[in-house]
Here is the input.
Amino acid sequence: MMAATAIASAVLGYSAASSSSAAPSRTAAPIIGGQGDFKYQYMPNLLALPAGTALVNAHGLVTDAEGNIILTYQNDNKTDSNCLIKWKPDGTAGVKFGSHALCDGTPHGLKIADEGAEQFLYHANNNQKLTKTMMDGTIVWQVNGNFGQDATLPYRPTWFAVPPQSKFIYLCDGYGSNNVYPFDRYTGTWTNRTYGGKGDDTQHGKFSTNHGCTYDPRNGMIAVADRANHRLEYFAFDNDSPDVFEYKKTVDMAPVMGAATLPCNFRFYPEQQWRSISPALDGPVAVLDYNNTIISIVNVSVLLEADQHKHPHDAELLPNGDMVVATWAPGRVSYWKKL
Here is the structure.
């Protein structure tokens, strides 16, 4: 566990290798963040954007079966019609792709799923568009606009949870109703079930910006990043029925990350001693152990302030232990090598 002074320093914007809250220039000493055995060095020459990319906001990240790094982003709706970039596992040779049908609007959450011998991508678009695609962006199914839910509620979907053995996927409507909606993963059909809704931090199972949804293989539950309530909420579900979405427990991020922390998402890595990673919109990216104890904090918004990496929106650990971070507005993506 990190010492209390290290935690406080990291949250305030300092790192074990930096005594200034201002980011060094790219020609200065290496930029290093984190603590203890989990320090990371920023690699400015990796994850270069392909020619013609008009990256307005950066949103979701995944790694495919070959280790390639994939980002979804919002384009400028003028010069760039794509919304996906794929880099090689070492962060080089980026290629952008994606059709108008997929990319128009505000692409947001991105998830990857193994289904039989194939992998698929699940996309949640803030402009009321849900899409399942092949890995090359070919559309399998797409749901545009309202799908039969209460039309009097706001609707701006943010992310899917895609449990590996489930017949269903779970949509978080994080910028809209704060509901969770289960869908049939093979047809894109809503199951006519609704869970959650708007609530404060005294109401478990209710949300205030249920931004990220993900499956936690450590306990077989769905974790919801309840962003404005500064916590992670856990739910049991049934692989074969949409009738179960039952609150089980909470992980409160405020005591360590600060009362104003805004956790956007969580990723879990059983192959890396069950560590997880959580980016917070207010600036830090936390690495946690099996027990959800924070073991390292990289304050990306401070360390890369000069390049405007302001709001970490998604982050992932790569198979080699390195870290990739996507920041929201203005859109940026950074590669951090584990030391």
